[in-house]
Model the fold of this input.
Amino acid sequence: MAQNDTGLRRLLTWPWFYDFFQDLVGGVAIRRRFVNEFLRPSPGARVLDVGCGTGNMLSYLPDGCGYLGFDFSEAYIEAARARFGERGRFVCARVDAQGAVQGLEGEGPFDLAIAFGVLHHLDDAEAARVFDCARRALKPGGRLATIDPAFVPGQGKLARYVVSRDRGRNVRTPEGYAGLGRGIFPDLEAHILRDTLRIPSDAVVLVGKA
Done:
């Protein structure tokens, strides 16, 4: 995990402040767009949320989805259970060196896998294991969707600065992210999103089919 939690960034380890900051900078709009435009879940779909944080993605999924989220932060998982415990299952866990998640054996298959704002917190080997984990968990024809801040062509100076100061230490170019997953999801598509937040920031969405 390559993450900078020093200084003011440490506040983001507190679940209530993380949610407050996400809402402040426009997290509601980008999550809604991510779900409606790229994830496109159907009622009753089984969803695996990798690095689910405080579980906010559940607010944008249709009722009736079978949801399982996991995150390495016990504080985030406790907050997710307190808010969404009746709608989904939350587990404190992480992807291991073999691309598996201890305690979640036999939970699949899933229709959809999400990694929202996860990959830029991981080094290349860790990020590749997330792709591997998602591929194993998905049923044939299932889809993975990810989103992360990115360095993109023609990026404005302020947006580039904001992205470079992210808590995650491995912000990449669109091809940098996609290159980590194409060996596992050969048809991985990359979509650049400009000005995704209320502050200058660009992102890349990856969509891969199992």
